[in-house]
C-alpha cells in the first residue's frame, strides 16, 4: 500500500508530479488559452463583484491560503485576507454579501474551518471550498468549490495536499485575471504554459533527494531551525518550519527574510541552521544580503536556489537547486526540498513520521 516507500509521507511527496497533473487535468487548456472550472464559471459574477476575498483555513492549508494571497493580488488585483479559521470565527468579523470566502481544507472535516464557513454564510457571503476529500462535510457545506484531486493523503504531515491546493488557487487566480483583464494576454499565456510544466520540474526537484538526505544527516541533532523566505516564498518558509516541528519535534520558526533583523537575528550562532529560499527574481539581491548577515554571525546556511546560481553558492554551506520557473509558481518547487528535509531528519531521529505524537489527520474538535 506504501508502493515500496518506507512511509506514506515519502510516497506522497513523490506522488506530487502526478497529483498536480491530476489537479489541472481538464482545467488547464494551454492550447486554447483557457482555464475551465465549473465552480468558478457558474459563479463568475460573485467573483467579479467581490470587493475582497477572505481565505479561512488552518495549518498547512492556511499556508496555501497565504501563498494564494500573493497570487490573487498579483494576477487578479483582488484584495485578499487570510485568516486562521479559529480566530476568524470568534472575532465578530466584518463580512458582507460582497465578500467571497474561500475555505481550504484537505480533509474537509476541520471543525474550526467548518464553523468559519457557517458564520460567513450567515452573513450572506458566498463561500467557495477547496477540499481534497470528495463528499466531505466542508465540500457539502460550501456554496461551490473545486476539488484538489490529490488522491488520499494518509501521512499526517500534509504534502501533496499543499501543492495541489496552491495549484487550484493559481488556476482560479488566472481565470479571474483573464476575466478582469488584470494580466496581459502574453503574461497570462506564459503562466498557463509554465504551470503545465510544473510537474516535470517537480520531478527534477525530487532528484535532489539523496543530496537532501546528506544534509539531513548533518543537522539531524540540531535543536532549533530558522526558515526564511520572501514574497511568494515567505509562506513556504512557514510551511517548511511547520513540517520540521510536527514530524521531527525540532523547534523551528519561519520568518519573512527581512524581519530577521527585527529580532530573530539574535538567535543566530554556529549552532543554528538557517534554511533560506533564495531563488532568482524573488528579491534575490536582498535575500543574498540576508544570507551575508547570517554568515557573519556563523549561522549554517542551507539555501534553496535556482539552477545555475552563483552568488548564493559562494556563501551558503549547502545549496539545493530547483529548476527556474515563473516566480509566482516557484512555491510549488521550493516546498519540495523542505518536505524532504523534514522527512529525512525525522526518520534519522527515529520519529514516527506518518503518525507524529499528539497529532491527528483531521481535527474535528476545536
Ligand atoms: C500539517 C497538517 C495540519 C493541517 C490542518 C488543516 O501538516 O496536516 O496543519 O494542515 O490541521 O487540516 P485540513 O486541511 O484537513 O483542514
From TrEMBL:
Keywords: Aminotransferase, Cytoplasm, Glutamine amidotransferase, Repeat, Transferase. GO terms for biological process: amino sugar biosynthetic process; carbohydrate metabolic process; fructose 6-phosphate metabolic process; protein N-linked glycosylation; UDP-N-acetylglucosamine metabolic process. GO terms for cellular component: cytosol. Coiled coil: none annotated. GO terms for molecular function: carbohydrate derivative binding; glutamine-fructose-6-phosphate transaminase (isomerizing) activity. Residues 43-182, 215-356 form the SIS domain. It is an enzyme of class 2 (transferase). The active site is at 361 (for fru-6p isomerization activity). Transmembrane segments: none annotated. It catalyses: D-fructose 6-phosphate + L-glutamine = D-glucosamine 6-phosphate + L-glutamate. It is found in: Cytoplasm. It comes from the Bacteria. Its EC number is 2.6.1.16. Homodimer. Catalyzes the first step in hexosamine metabolism, converting fructose-6P into glucosamine-6P using glutamine as a nitrogen source. This is Glutamine--fructose-6-phosphate aminotransferase [isomerizing]. It comes from Leptobacterium flavescens.
